[in-house]
Specification:
Amino acid/polyamine transporter I, 17 helices, mainly alpha
Length: 481
């Protein structure tokens, strides 16, 4: 293997593919809302609406930055160019941590949905406790092999599979709503707009704990930015890919989660069944339409989770490649002559995710859903910090760099995004959880970020080298007006 340049061979639809694959709307709609329901009850769509608002506010900064810069390191390059190399490394390290923990999230989701599908199909009844782990491990290994293939083929597969599954989910959602509205729903369920109101006794802390799972569902909308050096017209296509993904995700998640909760029922029994479901839309499809569509959606969710796992591996490998290239690590900064992808960096991502899951299982004897839940919270808390740094960098670059780049009033948008990010982080850390595994999640997120901060502060020569590389990088040369 030789060379330090990625191949420009992707178009806007393939960039959208990596963002949609990492956001994984079909997987997310089938499992992420359960974490939200555990803290806000029936008000799942309220939490997702707040997350939508936050993502759109954050997307403003990413879109503006990607109109001027394109870099495989995403927030590492953007923050490094706007706030300096130390901040850039911390942001990049944070996003890398998110990709690694989301690798755990998605492989476990693939294991959960995959084993459920095999059971529904009658292939594997009476499954042992390790069935989800086995299917998840297969998904992670397959993700590695597809990740080291040409990115063009991988993104096309991801976009096709995700599109078919999302279409099936939307058709099912329409059928469920029609039966609810027409009075033909099972168990006398009906359209109930109380899903858009917060139950009594649920404070703002509970709502914003639930918002984290909304952000988890959206995380990945910015993944297209890691393909900036592989897209033919990045400063036009990457912003379109990110903004389009964020807008679609917002409408999709709010509508689908509202119908899901109504379909299960908004009372205590319905919410309990909702949280316990093995596949939200799979179970609803079986109940409202037929077992064939429920089983198909469960399969689609498994494939979606696999696609998301692959997107985590692809995005994370580009981040490692970028950090290694600027930091002088020749082994990790090389790309395959055959496929033009950073193979060694890809191995690091897959191996680290696998080690985390193995240790988690061996030490705490958890189930796949426990790793899914914990890794999701940890990864999301970390990525919110990376988003925060990127948004601050965007404000500095757009409004305080001595050059008029946008209209001054637009500063309201990223400032509002920062406020929402800080408040969400605050409500997820304070008051500090005192019981259960949840108390360890903020600690893990803080420790990951602390490692990156200490590493870059203790090595000033490395920071200087990275700063020089970022300054000289043609991908971070400001777009000409």
């Amino acid at each position: 293997m030789s060379g330090k340049k990625l191949i420009k061979n992707l178009n806007v639809w393939e960039a959208i593919g990596i963002s949609v694959a990492l956001m994984a709307p079909s997987m997310a709609a089938n499992i992420n809302p359960q974490g939200t329901a555990g803290v806000v009850g029936r008000a799942v769509p309220v939490a997702f609406a707040l997350a939508t608002l936050g993502v759109l506010l954050i997307a403003y900064g990413f879109v503006r930055l990607c109109q001027n810069f394109n870099h495989a390191g995403s927030v590492y390059g953007f923050v490094g160019a706007t706030m300096g190399p130390r901040s850039g490394v911390v942001a990049g390290w944070g996003l890398l941590g998110t990709y690694i923990f989301y690798g755990c999230v998605t492989s476990m989701a693939a294991g959960i949905f995959g084993s459920t599908f095999l059971d529904e199909l009658g292939v594997w009844h009476h499954q042992p406790a390790w069935s989800g782990f086995a299917v998840g491990a297969i998904a992670l290994v397959l993700a590695y092999f597809l990740a080291v293939a040409p990115a063009r083929n991988g993104t096309r597969v991801l976009l096709t599979v995700e599109g078919i599954t999302v279409l099936l989910i939307l058709i099912t959602t329409v059928i469920i709503f029609a039966k609810l509205a027409g009075g033909h729903a099972p168990d006398n369920h009906h359209v109930d707009w109380s899903v858009f109101s917060i139950p009594k006794g649920t404070g703002t802390s509970g709502v914003f704990l639930g918002v984290v799972f909304g952000f988890l569902s959206f995380a990945g909308f910015e993944a297209a930015s890691t393909l900036g050096e592989e897209t033919k017209n990045p400063r036009r296509d990457i912003p379109r890919a990110m903004l389009g993904t964020a807008i679609f995700g917002g409408v999709y998640f709010v509508v689908v989660t509202a119908v899901e909760v109504m379909g299960f029922g908004t009372n205590a029994a319905g919410v309990k069944a909702y949280i316990a479901s093995g596949s939200l839309l799979g179970d609803l499809g079986t109940k409202y339409v037929g077992s064939w569509i429920g089983t198909t959606i469960t399969l689609g969710a498994a494939v979606s989770a696999f696609g998301c796992c692959l997107a985590c591996v692809v995005g994370g490998s580009r981040l490692i490649f970028s950090l290694a290239r600027d930091g002088g690590n020749q082994k990790l900064a090389t790309v395959s002559e055959k496929n033009g992808v950073p193979v060694n960096a890809t191995r690091i991502i897959v191996a680290t995710s696998a080690i985390i899951m193995i240790l988690w299982k061996l030490i705490w004897h958890v189930k796949p859903f426990d790793i899914f839940l914990g890794s999701g919270v940890i990864g999301t808390l970390i990525i919110l910090v990376a988003y925060l740094l990127a948004t601050v960098g965007a404000i500095k670059f757009l409004f305080f760099s001595g050059k008029k780049r946008v209209r001054q009033w637009e500063i309201i948008v990223p400032v509002a995004g920062i406020a929402l990010l800080i408040y969400t982080l605050y409500k997820n850390v304070l008051p500090w959880p005192t019981t259960g595994a949840g108390r360890a999640y903020p600690i893990a997120a803080i420790l990951w970020l602390a490692i990156g901060i200490v590493a870059i502060l203790s090595r000033p020569a490395l920071a200087s080298r990275i700063g020089a590389q970022l300054t000289a990088d043609e991908n971070l040369s400001e777009a000409r007006s």
